[in-house]
Amino acid sequence: MIVTLSTKDTVLEEFILNVLALDKSIRWVGVASSEGELLLVKRRKDLVPLMTYEENQEYTLSAINRHKSRVKFQEKIGKLLYALGKYEKLTRVVAPINDNFYLLITFDIEELNFDYLMLEKVIPFVTSNNLSIPMK
What we know:
Elements: H1 7-20, E1 26-33, E2 38-43, H2 53-70, H3 74-77, E3 83-86, E4 90-96, E5 101-108, H4 114-129
Antiparallel strand pairs: 1-2, 1-5, 3-4, 4-5
């Protein structure tokens, strides 16, 4: 059986794989819609996931809703660059890509330079690649 990726999936996959390749400490990368739907995820080769796809979907919806609740303050404190959650087993980051999409990343727990990675590698990559996903 031959599986053909849609243009949308091909664009997402290339984008996600490029983010995953930015640093060896990046474990998992996903892109979600502004409605909280997890569109596509990729993980580092040989990585055993800590959460199921369904659990990641639930987390994504919750994280994006939290982000939307913070937007009302951005006029006073500026636009949110990324939000971070540090857990015992990993570090999770949610960052807006544009008005329609969000980037979700997990880092190895040992990685302490996540601010540098986000500000110097991930965000510049996202900005320079201006993710535009065809709707069909």
